[in-house]
Amino acid sequence: MRIAVVGTGYVGLVTGSCFADLGNIVTCVDVDKKKIQDLKKGIVPIFEPGLEEVVRRNKNQRLLFTTDLAKAVQEADFIFIAVSTPPGKGGEADISNVKAVARGIAKSINGYKIIINKSTVPIGMGDVVTQIIKQNGPEDVSFDVVSNPEFLREGSAVMDLIKPERVVIGATRRSAAQKVAEIYKPLHCPILITDLKSAEMIKYASNAFLATKISFVNEISNLCDKVGADIQQVTKGMSYDSRIGNQFLNAGLGFGGSCFPKDVSALVDIGKKNGYPFRILPQVLAINHFQRLAYVAKVRKVLGPLKGKTLAVWGLSFKPNTDDLREAPSLTILPFLSAAGAKVRAYDPVTNEKAKEIFKKVKFFSSPYETARGADAVLVLTEWNEFKQVDFQKLKMLMKRPVLIDGRNMYEPQEMVEKGFAYTGMGRGEVLNF
Q1: How far are the Cα atoms of 52, 59, 397 from residue 42, in angstroms, in the given order?
Q2: Has 18 been annotated as catalytic?
Q3: Residue of 18, 28, 224, 259 with catalytic role
Q4: pLDDT digits over 231-256, tens only?
C-alpha cells in the first residue's frame, strides 16, 4: 500500500516507520527541512527505543522523507494526519495544524483518497476535515475521512504499534474503515470499527480514565503518609481485584508528557462547549499539580530550610525511556528548589542536553554518583533502570548526608535503612532513620 504520513513527531515517525517495516511504501512529510534532511541520513530527532533501527532499516527503500506535501498526497492512497494538537490558552486542543494539513491535502488531491486522523483531535474534527477538503478541493473528487486514534506510550511506542492491544477505526462509510483495517491486518490484533465521533471520544476517554486512576492513587498515597500506612502494600492489595488491576497504580509525582495533561484539559474544554461541565476531571488536573508541590514540601520537611543545601536530582524526563520533558514533574520541582536557595545538581541518562536549555541555574553531571557528590540529599524524580543498580555504599561515601527522598518509590524503605540511609518515599509513612 502507498501511504503518506504528515508529521514526523512521536506519533507520525513511529507510525510511518513501522508501516514501512510491514512492507508498505511510506512517505513521511514535515515542514521542518532540517528534520527531514536528518531523517534521510537516518538521524532520528527523538529518543525512542527501537525507532532508530526501524528507520535505518527502511529508509530510502520503503520509507521516504520529504517536505513536498503535494507530491506525497498525489502518490498515496492513504494519508495519515499526525501533526501536533498542543493545548491552547484555555486548555482546548489547538487544531490549527490539522486544519492546515487538510487545506494542503485539498489543494493537491487528485483522486480517491482515504484521509486518516491520527492526531488527537476534538470530537467532531472528522467532520471539520471533511468540510475543509470539500470547500478547498476539486468538486468532482471523492474521498473518505477516517479516525484512527493512536495509543502509543512514549518509551514503548514501537512495540505498542506492532503489538497493539486494539486498533480503533471510526468512519462514516464502513467500506473506508475496512480498507484502513487492511493496513493493520498483519498485526493480528483486535480491530474495533465504529462511527467517527465515537472513535474520537475513545481516545480522550481512555487517557482521561488512566489519568484519573493516577490522581486517585496519589490522593490515597498522601493519606497513607498521614495515617502511617504503606501505599505499596495498599495498591498491591487493590490490584488482586480483577476489576481494578495493577496498572497505573504507582504512587509518585503524577503524570506528565504530551498526552495525559493535554487530553484531560481538552476533554474538560469539550465538556464546557457542549454544556456539560465535568466535575471529576478538573480535580484530576489539580491533584496532579498538587503532587509536585507535596513533594517539594516533603523535601523541606526532611531537610529544613533549603538555602545553601546541595540537592542531587536523579531523572528529569517525565518517565523513563524517553527524552520528553513536556509537563515533567521536574519542570515544577526544580525551579521551586532553586528559588528556595538550594544548589541543584542533576543527571538524566538521556535528556541532559535538552534540560540544560531549560534549567539555567542547575549544574549537570554525567553520572548519578558525580551528581550526588557532596549532596545533602538525593531526589529521585524519574524511575530509570540505571538507578536500580546503584552501589549504595559508594553513594553513601560520596554524599554529605545519606538522605534519599524517593519520588517514585523505587526502593524499599527498610532496605535503605539497613544500607545506612535516611529514607522517605511517597505514601510510605514517616522519614526512616533520620
Answers
A1: 7, 7, 43
A2: no
A3: 259
A4: 999 999 999 999 999 999 999 999 99
